[in-house]
Amino acid sequence: MESDTVIHVENLAKRYLIQHKNLSNKKGGGKMLSERMHSAAKSIWGRFFCGSGIETSRATSEEFWALKDVSFDVRRGEVLGIVGRNGAGKSTLLKLLSRITEPSRGEIRIKGRVASLLEVGTGFHPELTGRENVFLNGAILGMTREHIRAKFDEIVAFAEIEKFLDTPVKYYSSGMYVRLAFAVAAHLEPDILIVDEVLAVGDMAFQKKCLASMEETTKQGRTVLLVSHNMPTVLSLCTRAVLLSGGMVAAEGSPVSVLETYQNAYRDGSFAVDTSNSDCRLLRAWIGTDSSASQRSVPMSEAFDIQIEYEVLNANSRNFVPYVQLDTDSGQCVFHVNPENISRAGEGRWRAACTIPGWMLNVGGYQVTFLVVGFSANSYDVCLNEPSALSFTVVEDVPHPGRYAYAGHVPGAIWPCLEWKVNKQDSPPLSLPYDSL
Amino acid sequence: MQAEITIRSGRSETGYWRDLWQYRELFVFLAWRDIIVRYKQTVAGSTWALLRPVLTIIVFTVIFGRMGKFPSDGVPYPILVLAGMLPWQFFSNAISSSTHSLVNNNSLISKIYFPRLIIPISTFGVAIIDYLITLGILAAMMAWYQVMPTWRLLCLPAFTLLAVAAALGPGLLISALMVEYRDFKHIVPFLVQLGTYVSPVGFSTSAVPEQWRMLYACNPVVGVIEGFRWCIYGGQAEDVDKPLSLSVEGSLISCGVVLILLVLGVWYFRRTEKTFADLI
Predict the structure, then answer these.
(1) Is A344 left (phi over 0), alpha (psi -120 to 50) or beta?
(2) Quick one: three-class SS letters along A28-66?
């Protein structure tokens, strides 16, 4: 291990056994003793009468490799972004790094104190007050009492909850809850901070504050590992990124190049076979008319299509509606739209095209997120969620009609040509009160 | 230079006990959480801590004393019951809360690392508080009945430790088993209830026929309870000539069972600990 390497991951693999009995799935909680006895009895029975007892036990569980052969290094002071689609193994990797679970193969070597924030407010007790929870949460994260006491005022100020310090957190708004939880973790001062998607919640202002605090952390020579679906965050915060796909490292390098590889997979639909048995899966996504050559930049003056192909595997008498969400590269949502009048869209392959009119978006970079939501009579499930599946840049091919002689930047995520009515008020009113004086 | 840790499959971490020491404050914090959460949003508040043992004593005294008519070793019957109840209540409270502790704290286990031993052990905090309160009630009762303790009372801390050890072994074992087999959720309350009747809480071990006493001593709680009685009112004028209700051999058997269960509990817990996050 080199002197400035703080995390060294070598041939890391993690295997889960998936139970194929309908009684228990991967996270379904403990097994029943009777089941275990039953299968033990079966295997003894099998050994006696069929010569081998292994066959019978294999029938009930299947191996699933959440991670297979992952290797990478992290140097001191780096901010490493870990990106990948759902089920690529990101969370498993973080769990291994934070010692929550043990690898099945391979090795991790870590230098320094690790603090991991896999969930906001782990260990918060709803009945306890904010003050009490700061101490409890701090202790769970590995802070000493003196350390918490010394940082207490800073934590409270950071979370902006001074007034509610002695209120049980069960009465907190979700924003307050997240702020307090992040504030505790932000004052942990570990050598290595591992963060999983925690910034997805909380308002914009607080997210900015958290990001600033994380930037501050890295300036002090600390190392940050960040899993995020929010590509703008990865682009702006990370110095390096690792793309996981199907439990393996698919790309590694600068965030921009990794994001490129990530989105290429969407364009040609070449992502690893989706093992999650979801109700709906994405086949392909592209911009423009030609599915084989997705447009990277679109002219401002012309309309263009954002297209996706998806397959509904298990409709279960739900109506499947596709959504397109557009965000700017700085993470601001431009719109979140879906087609109206979709009814009884069930199993099968679907293609959806959303037309963005010309003279609509402003110059700049945009990220496209796809969702497919299954609606039943009175509830809905998000069956597909692919954040930042595509990105494109809008260029001003011909000067915007609204420019006149102005050549500079125009603010706003959109720059639409709206209908105006401008009339010259030529003839002044004939009689104004003071005229008659 | 900072400590370097290596995470590898199947390798028992050498730093485990050092980690446990580093996280020592967490024992206190988790115990403190359980204690204060228990009386949140109750009208009577912490009065319940006093009320609960008092109510239990009344029930026990009435049921065993009035109806059972057990011999009382020559001390006022309520003292006998209370001296037995003191360790038994501690034992059953500690067992009930520690065995459920891992499952109840599953969000902690699946989201954050710390030595897992902290979780079941910290639940003993609540049981210890109850124990101290009951001890206070016992002191008051002894003053009321004018039962004078002897020098033997000084051995009480040692027997308290024995009670902790007796509860810790099965507590660790069953809490780890419960992660994988939720059956124990149903087994534990039954065992505790059964224990109330087969342990010498409402009666003295002298009520058990002589030939069965050695077998009876295999119940780890028997040694603890009789030890408590010996500390609290042993050597009273009336029974000075009587042999101890539990012989020295019997006590040793009881202590041996406690020790075996403790070693077994720690061993099994440590062995399965790493898979908790995957199974819970």
Answers:
(1) left
(2) CCCECHHHHHHHHHHHHHHHHHCCCCHHHHHCCEEEEEE
pTM for the whole thing? 0.76
> What does the block give as tokens for B216?
């009876």
Q: What is the pLDDT along chain A (437 residues), one digit of tens a residue?
A: 667 888 999 999 998 887 765 444 434 444 556 666 666 565 555 555 444 444 444 446 778 888 988 999 999 888 899 988 877 888 889 889 888 888 888 889 988 888 888 877 788 888 889 999 999 988 888 888 898 999 899 999 988 888 999 999 889 888 888 888 888 887 888 888 888 876 656 666 777 777 787 778 778 888 888 888 777 778 888 889 999 888 889 889 998 898 888 887 777 666 555 545 578 888 888 998 877 777 888 999 999 999 999 989 888 889 999 999 999 888 788 999 999 988 888 899 999 999 999 999 999 889 999 999 999 888 888 888 888 888 899 999 989 988 888 888 899 999 999 999 998 887 666 665 555 55
Contacts of A133 in chain B (CB under 8 A): none
- Give the domain range for residue B263: 16-279
CA distance A104 to chain B (A): 5
In a domain, B102, yes or no: yes
Residue B229 counted as domain residue = yes
Q: What is the ipTM of this complex?
A: 0.82
State whether residue A133 is helix, strand or coil. Answer: helix
Number of domains into which chain B is organized: 1
Give B133→chain A minimum CA distance, Å.
24
Q: Tell me if B4 is assigned to some domain.
A: no
Q: Do A105 and B9 touch (CB under 8 A)?
A: yes
Residue B221: inside a domain: yes
Domains of chain A, start order: 21-59 (no CATH), 67-262 (3.40.50.300), 277-395 (2.70.50.60)
Tell me if A12 sits within 8 A of A67, measured CB to CB.
yes
Gap from B166 CA to chain A (nearest CA, Å) = 25
B98 to chain A nearest CA, in Å?
17
**A–B: how many Cβ contacts below 8 A?**
119
Task: Collect all residues of chain A within an 8 Å Cβ-Cβ radius of residue B182.
Answer: 29-32
Q: CA–CA separation, B161 vs B18, rounded Å? A: 23
- Structural contact between residues A282 and A370, judged by C-beta atoms closer than 8 angstroms: yes
- Put simply, the answer to whether A31 touches B112 (Cβ < 8 Å) is no
| CB within 8 Å: A32 and B181 | yes
Q: Give CA–CA dist B204/B229, Å, rounded.
A: 9
* Residue from B11, B20, B42, B113 whose CB has the most chain A CBs within 10 Å, to mutate: B113
